[in-house]
Amino acid sequence: MRLTAEVLLRAEHYLNAYNDRELNLRGLKTPMIENLSILQDQFDVIDFSDNEIKKVDNFPHMKRLNALLINNNYVSKIAANLGEYIPSLTALILTNNKIAMLSEVDNLRSLKKIEILSLIDNPVSLKMSYRVYVIHRIPSLKFLDYRKVSRKEREEVAQWANSTAGKAFITSVAQEAASGGPGAASGGVNGVAMTLTDEQKALVRKAIEAATTKEEIDNIERQLKAGNFSFIEKFQVAESPSDGVDVVNNSAIGSRK
Q1: Euclidean distance between CA atoms 71 and 93, whole angstroms
Q2: Which pTM was predicted?
Q3: Nearest 5°: CA angle at 217, between 215 and 222?
Q4: Is 165 left (phi over 0), alpha (psi -120 to 50) or beta?
Q5: pLDDT tens across 38-86, in order?
Q6: From residue 115, how far is each of 46, 148, 251 by CA, in Å?
Q7: Helix (H, G, I), strand (E, B) or coil at 19
Q8: For residue 221, how many other CB atoms are within 10 A of its CB?
């Protein structure tokens, strides 16, 4: 179903638990975001969950909008200029989509007020250094994948970004963006050669040395073959303890402005 003016004007809307005006566009099988100018910027939250949207784009100027729920779609692309059109957005929930490239996540940097981001169950969330990279590139984040970004974690991310391995990884993502497809930052999948720094190779060896059972070694081998290097994260940047609250309730998203 296309988002025609008629569909948008007839859609369910209400005040949610946080007194935000929310528009419900769930489950319409819509393939794209369109015609939102008809709403005249009257909503704080729009729920696009359970549709067939492939790209987050095509927003008119909506200064009031502070939260987007786009769970369970087919999103693989994100427009680079979202912040120009939805400058007040503080929460973006993209759980269970098809985003595979960290360079797409870079496009969220235009959202200067974003504090809550979920990319759970996207291929990109399995990439090596995913969490540290996203926190580094989007410093306004307070919660990533419903986990609090603590002060200690920010310090560790800064150390990573200034390390030889971090700089090399950040450069590889830029190369990925320039080439228009997964490259060195992907770790190599389906026969694509992997490009790792000496420091990253050392971390892989350290993970193997730390394995205590054959099953753990087999698991590392499977992840290497799949191009998933997330298992070395604990040897690179230690998990930081939470400072108080360490998760955010999905129902509270609309209240963050």
Answers
A1: 6
A2: 0.75
A3: 90
A4: alpha
A5: 999 999 999 999 999 999 999 999 999 999 999 999 999 999 999 999 9
A6: 17, 10, 15
A7: coil
A8: 11
